[in-house]
Amino acid sequence: MRQIGNNEELAQYIKWCSDHHKSVGFVPTMGALHPGHLSLVDIAANENDIVIVSIFVNPTQFNNAKDLEKYPRTLDKDAKLLTQTECNVIYTPSVSDVYPTSFIPRNADLGMLDTTLEGHYRPGHYVGVVSVVQRLFDLVQPQKAYFGRKDLQQVAVIKTMVKQFNYPIEIKVGETVREESGLALSSRNSLLTTTEKKEAVAISELLFEMREWSKVLDPLACETKAIKKFEETTMQLEYLSIIHPLTFENLIDEWVPGATVCIVAYCGEVRLIDNLELVPLT
Question: Of 37, 120, 125, 244, which one is the catalytic site residue?
Fold first, then answer.
């Protein structure tokens, strides 16, 4: 495994891959790696000749300066973890590598994705996501790119961008990896105190309860019951919504295959995100 920290060296490596007909799988991350990230690396290694993992805390997708400042940065630990996988390259660019003065991002038409749920509560967030992912795709030029289902709306944004920009890249989605308690793995979990981490388990417990409720309640009733129950926890709910898996429209009366509950809550000052498919895809 090698670490590449500048675009010139990366370009040389990508050329070598092309010249030697090596397929490239790409796992973009913001670091603070956990087993969820490593599971994506494993999937990529099984499907490609070369696996490149980027570690870059993207400033343009934070609409809260304090959130950016607090975001965990653990490069040495991340590199050590990746040596235990089949990762071939860690790409660790600077801000100027990703956003040179000559870079002019293309704007994607995200429609409802940019105005609902994360788009509503984090205005400008997906503009930043689109900017950084298109730039990384242009630099790495992978055949396949890997993302986690935990950030379901982000996956939908990236798929939309890839289609609109005609990128010859297949987007692959890995399932959410959870701790034994059920808590979805997240880089932000490292910011939780021991007590908060125990409290945060209530998020996933509620989602799995909702899967049972969905067998007898309509979406609106299921959602209403869940919000009321969440009020019994110590956390602050930002949103809980049962959505159509493709359009992200809120479901009211009828279930659809792939119907998913999306939730964001604050445990202390830490913003946690999770989702769960309530109705299986047919």
Answer: 37
